[in-house]
Design brief:
By secondary structure, this protein is α+β, with helices and mostly antiparallel strands. It has four helices and twelve strands. The longest helix has 12 residues.
């Protein structure tokens, strides 16, 4: 196989190998030919989601949801102030918190923005618990109203909780819980 034909093979197969690398042994020459970019290169070349300039202004860095946080479309009402007291009901307001072991703290007051950078609501500091003492903020706005407002403002149900003046956490759907342990309304989407 000639080098010229190898480059032709690369061009033909590149679209098929964007995500992963394929190693091919060329008979006789004992050459290894890598078809397409590595996974890291493919991620760099992948088109990035465009972020609204107004959102970028209030959220210069956007963190994807992960094990470091939880978000709920509700706030459990417990029978007493004890940490493990039974849940007797739910307030249909949003709760965002850092998980135990992840750094915070959240600001005393945090804002939630729509995908277009418009403010949806304010979330205020709530009590610190041993399982998420990095901080917790709760909204006074009903989750269903915040979700509708986000869709009205940006056409998307997503929200961005301000963690500091430099970063926000993305909530893909305001009506859906992320990493929540107490089920209740988290079993579905709050519309």
């Amino acid at each position: 196989m000639q080098k010229q034909s190898l480059s032709q093979v690369r061009r033909l197969l590149f679209p098929l190998t964007v995500v992963a690398s394929l190693m091919l042994s060329v008979a006789g020459d004992r050459q290894i030919l890598q078809l397409g970019p590595s996974v890291a290169e493919a991620r760099e070349r992948a088109p990035r989601a465009r972020v609204n300039p107004k959102l970028r202004k209030v959220c210069p860095t956007i963190r994807e949801p992960g094990a470091w946080m939880f978000y709920k479309n509700n706030k459990p009402i417990r029978s007493s102030s004890k940490f493990d007291a039974p849940v007797i009901g739910f307030n249909r307001v949003m709760t965002f918190a850092y998980q135990k072991g992840y750094s915070g703290p959240l600001p005393g007051v945090s804002n939630m923005f729509a995908a277009n950078g418009e403010k949806i609501t304010t979330l205020s500091f709530w009590s610190c618990r041993s399982d998420h003492c990095g901080g917790r903020v709760v909204s006074s706005m009903l989750t269903s109203h915040a979700r509708r407002r986000a869709i009205q403002l940006s056409g998307k149900p997503e929200g961005y909780v301000q963690l500091s003046n430099k970063s926000c956490a993305k909530i893909p759907d305001i009506g859906q819980c992320i990493n929540a342990k107490v089920r209740g309304p988290c079993a579905g989407v709050e519309k």
